[in-house]
Amino acid sequence: MRLGPSPTSMRAMRPLTTFLFDLDGTLLDSIRLILDSYHHTLRVHGHAPRSDAEWLAGVGTPLRVQFRDWTHDPKTMEAMIATYRDFNLANHDTMAAAYPGVVEAVKSVYRRGIRMGIVTSKNRAGAERGLKLMGLEQEFSLIIGADDVVNPKPHPEPVLKALDQLGVSAEETVYIGDSVHDMHSGKAAGVRTAAVLWGPFKRQDLVHTEPTWWLERPEELIDLMAK
Length: 227
Known about the structure:
Elements (H helix, E strand, L loop, with lengths): L1 E2 L14 E4 L6 E2 L1 H14 L7 H7 L4 H4 L7 H22 L1 E2 L3 H10 L3 E5 L4 H11 L7 E3 L12 H10 L6 E5 L2 H10 L2 E5 L6 H4 L6 E3 L4 H4 L4
Parallel strand pairs: 2-5, 2-7, 5-6, 7-8, 8-9
Antiparallel strand pairs: 1-9, 3-4
Helix pairs in contact: 1-4
């Protein structure tokens, strides 16, 4: 684990009691499934294709944000979202899986008494399915999904709502994610942030967000408890 350049890491901090996690790209390796779901949706609705890189830039934001370049009509938006979700759910359990080492690391953190929650741009039902697929339903006491907030990531509302529902302070919490949207949301909410490097994004993609910590391997989640 390497410290990031954030000034937060340079001053005395309260011990961490609470880990909040993003889901896709952080715990669940579902990026290929997500990209294929976007490509499928554009094909079905008669739109020109978009590259993986273009879709990837928006991963971590809700479907309504991703599809707003094509429509502002509510009925069309709902139809595109339904197409995406139908494809995604039909292929979810065969195309998605936990990143190597993630399940063991999360269970180890849980056994040590750390409170854990999920803060995701997925809807709640999708997040629950992902946790079930990984066998991590019992380890997380909270899910904040896209359908639980008015302002999704990178706005701080999802993280702030998690803090409120868990009854914990920002000073004792870290938000762990893979995207710039995760880092911005966590930072705006006043929590420490940890950027994972086993997901789809590299250090150069995230360095400008100045995370408190960089995590290169899931096992380093255990080391955060000593921070």
